[in-house]
Amino acid sequence: LSDIKSVAVAGSDIAVSDKIKSLGVTLDKRLTFDTQVGNLCKAVHYHARSLRHIRNSLPDSLALTVASSIVSRLDYCNSLLTGTSQKNIARLQRAQNTVARAVTRTAKFDHITPVLMDLHWLPVECRIKFKVATMVYKIRQTNQPAYLTPMIQEKAASRTLRSSRDHYLLVVPRRRLVTGMQAFSYAAPFIWNSLPDAIRQLDPKTVSLLTFKKQLKTHLFRLAYTI
Question: Rounded to an integer, what distance in angstroms lies between the CA atom of residue 85 and that of residue 181?
Answer without folding.
Answer: 12
